[in-house]
Design a protein that fits this description.
Layout lengths: L7 E6 L12 E6 L5 H9 L17 E5 L5 E4 L10 H17 L3 E9 L6 H9 L5 E6 L6 H14 L3 E4 L8 H15 L1
Parallel strand pairs: 2-4, 2-5, 5-6, 6-7
Antiparallel strand pairs: 1-3, 3-4
Length: 192
């Protein structure tokens, strides 16, 4: 049984003071609003509704922590970019995510989820540059929306620009789910 199958919602943190105390190694999921972070978590856990998904950008407004038993945790971060929310709420999210990424001693890796049809936006590039000291997996979600030729071209383009791991992924067809799960579980084992 893989650790992701044990995933349970643990707690939501809306302010830096609400963050869980450091515990087992964590993997954070970051990306633009509505890019598929929660869907990726659900696919990796083999569950439909562990992480709440929505077609409305900006649905995840807190850092949502998921327990993988005593072995690890996942953190679903609020999305960046387009979201129909106030500037003050966006500023609150930016502070929360910034504190989490900067000060989290148990953060083992960050999964940066990007839409395979529109990868490496200026905001994606800004985040990736900021994460240079972290172990990063660039997850190209919604890969099922591309033809095989387009998938290969996108994977090659993104892979040539990034130094970390890059994988095609589809929570709909399950493309890349096992491969990504194995990679992340290995990272978690190495972090213990």
């Amino acid at each position: 049984m893989h650790p992701f199958s044990k995933a349970q919602f643990l707690r939501a943190a809306g302010r830096p003071g609400d963050l869980l105390p450091p515990g087992p190694p964590e993997i954070a999921f970051a990306g633009r609003s509505n890019v598929g972070k929660s869907s990726a978590i659900n696919a990796l856990a083999g569950r439909r509704s562990l992480a709440r998904t929505s077609k409305t950008p900006g649905r995840t407004q807190t850092i949502n922590f998921y327990d993988l038993g005593e072995e690890a945790r996942l953190a679903d971060l609020p999305g960046y970019g387009y979201a129909k929310v106030s500037q003050s709420l966006r500023a609150q999210w930016a502070e929360l995510v910034g504190v989490y990424l900067k000060d989290r001693p148990t953060l083992a890796a960050v999964v940066v989820v990007m839409d395979a049809r529109h990868p490496l936006t200026p905001l994606d590039r800004q985040l990736l540059a900021w994460l240079e000291s972290f172990q990063v997996l660039a997850l190209l979600s919604k890969a099922d929306k591309l033809t095989r030729v387009e998938q290969a071209a996108t994977l090659k383009k993104v892979g040539s620009e990034l130094s970390g791991e890059v994988r095609l992924f589809s929570s709909t067809t399950k493309q890349g789910v096992e491969e990504c799960r194995d990679l992340l579980e290995g990272w978690l084992r190495d972090a213990r």
